[in-house]
Specification:
The protein has 152 residues and is mainly α. The protein folds into 2 domains: 57 residues, no CATH class; 65 residues, no CATH class. It has 7 helices and 3 strands. The protein has a 3-stranded antiparallel beta sheet. The chain starts with 8 loop residues before the first strand and ends in a 15-residue tail after the last helix.
């Protein structure tokens, strides 16, 4: 999962069903006092039961998914840039990665090279998949193959 897209959300993996779900931190905090529960917005009220199940999870059914990547996307971008055969694009990518906000600038530069942009997403997605598989293995779990991919 790419960085927690919304601040204040906790993500979990249900190891029984394989489902991934999120619960706002505010809901966990509200469970501490009844006054805070009453102050939750109506859309968060149904999440109280789920949050309570997570907190009381003695069987380790729910695993918190870390919000941060255990790798540097800038580092991966730099390695990718080294593999670009078009010299002008390679230099442009390497240059923007040295500047502030390199990730955003990388996306802008590579946007005008559709084939390299597709290749970048393939490289990034494969790397992310490997990171997730290693993370799951820490808990004795194994990811299923994507049904759209043939197994080798």
């Amino acid at each position: 999962m790419r960085h927690a897209e919304m601040v204040g959300l906790e993500y979990f993996l249900d190891t029984l069903t394989g489902d991934i779900f999120s619960v706002p931190e505010q809901v966990f905090e509200a469970l501490e006092t009844e006054e805070e529960i009453a102050g939750l917005p109506a859309w968060q009220q149904p999440l109280l039961n789920l949050a309570q199940r997570v907190l009381n999870d003695e069987d380790k059914r729910f695993i918190r998914i870390p919000a941060d990547y255990p790798f540097s996307e800038i580092g991966l971008m730099s390695k990718f840039a080294e593999t670009v055969s078009d010299a002008a694009l390679r230099v442009a990518l390497q240059k923007v990665l040295l500047e502030g906000d390199g990730q955003s600038k990388f996306a802008v530069v590579i946007e005008t090279y559709p084939a390299e942009r597709r290749r970048w997403f393939e490289v990034r997605d494969l790397h992310e998949e490997q990171v997730v598989r290693r993370w799951l293995e820490q808990f004795g779990l194994q990811a299923e193959s994507d049904p759209g991919q043939e197994s080798s």
